[in-house]
Design goal:
single chain, 353 residues, alpha/beta, 12 helices, globular, binds pyridoxal-5'-phosphate
Length: 353
């Protein structure tokens, strides 16, 4: 039995997937009960009167090129959030299995796991060691029930990189018992190479990527699950047909055209520079006691008076993310790196009484 067959929920392996209307662009479509006419202002290429391609092959091969993998190793979804949801549904048996997470971390891992009716095992990151993984504690928490591990690199909300050698040891240790998900939502802002290039070494590896952050497409909701073809085929059994809306797919293909990619690379470089300047400006503020090192497009700051910092930000017209009441982030706020002009205005506002 393959690893995927061994770990997948038996119901999903046995499922007869939804059979969607066939897809043959060469023929006229009188098989899907669509409207023959576009609405008058429909500016889309494909026509919004038509259902989109059931599985967006063109987009998926474009994403495969972007991430340096083969198309059969990619599943496009409505943001990487959908990937997280699909993974819990494919691998976690309600009432029996568990996902391991390392807080403080992205909230959707626990939410999706609980919606699935599975347990959440928490092994906190080491706040005393720049939010590194607590390797012995993670190893000790592994049990036959733990079928999924969600790791975020760089971390949200920490901004921290994880040691790739620890990830390698974890992937090797769980090679026959669990799927390790490395969420690389912010990889474009980081220095470390993506784990997407390591699929051949680790059959239990899943990498999540998204166009939401670095490619300025949060509103289009396009993310990618990257994994072994067998795992991708398993998720295809669950993902709804027509999941990717036509305007979203067209926007993604446009954003990934060469000229726009070049622009994205410049913007990413600009945000990385701005991150350093914003971090220095924040560290100089009396109300900020600590700025955590960040490999992402945001900064986690700690303050003795987080409510006052939030108030000053709001008075200057900015929303920040308040994590100060979180168990693992006392006194902390998360600040997205904006344009240089926004960052300056924010710093001025935070310095004002
Ligand atoms: C923003 C974010 C996501 C969600 O990305 P979408 O592709 O927009 O769903 C996933 N993981 C982390 C860690 C994030 O911060």
């Amino acid at each position: 039995m393959s690893l995927i067959e061994q770990l997948a929920r038996p119901e999903i392996l046995a499922l007869e997937p939804y059979s969607h209307a066939s897809w043959d662009p060469a023929l006229e479509r009188l098989h899907a009960n669509e409207n023959p006419w576009r609405y008058p202002d429909d500016r889309s290429e494909a026509g919004l009167n038509r259902y989109p391609e059931p599985h967006p092959h063109v987009l998926e091969s474009r994403l495969a090129t972007l991430y340096g993998v083969r198309p059969e190793q990619v599943l496009a979804g409505r943001g990487s959030d959908e990937g997280i949801d699909l993974l819990t549904r494919a691998f976690l048996r309600p009432g029996r299995d568990a996902a391991l997470i390392c807080p403080p971390t992205f909230g959707m891992y626990a939410v999706a796991t609980r919606i699935q009716g599975a347990a959440v095992v928490e092994v906190p990151l080491r706040a005393d060691a720049a939010f590194a993984l607590d390797e012995p504690a993670v190893f000790a928490a592994l049990s036959p029930a733990v079928r999924l591990l969600f790791l975020c690199m760089p971390g949200n909300p920490t901004g921290a990189a994880l040691d790739p050698r620890v990830l390698e040891r974890l992937l090797a240790r769980t090679a026959e018992s669990a799927i390790v998900v490395i969420d690389e939502a912010y990889a474009e802002f980081a220095s470390a190479p993506s784990f997407a290039s390591r699929l051949a070494e680790f059959p239990n590896l899943v990498v999540l990527r998204t166009l939401s952050k670095a490619y300025a497409l949060a509103g289009a909701r396009i993310g990618a699950v990257i994994a072994a073809p067998e795992l991708i085929a398993l998720l295809r059994r669950i993902v709804p047909p027509y999941a990717i809306a036509t305007p979203a797919a067209e926007a993604a293909l446009s954003a990934l055209a060469p000229a726009n990619l070049a622009e994205a690379a410049e913007r990413i470089a600009a945000l990385r520079r701005a991150r350093g300047m914003l971090a220095a400006g924040l560290a100089a503020l009396p109300l900020v006691s600590r700025v955590w090192p960040s490999e992402a497009n945001f900064l986690l700051v700690e303050s003795p008076e987080p409510a006052e910092l939030m108030r000053r930000a709001r008075a200057a017209g900015f929303l920040l993310r308040d994590f100060s009441r979180g168990r693992h982030t006392p006194g902390c706020l998360r600040i997205t790196v904006g344009s240089a002009e926004q960052n300056d205005r924010l710093l001025t506002g935070l310095a004002a009484r």
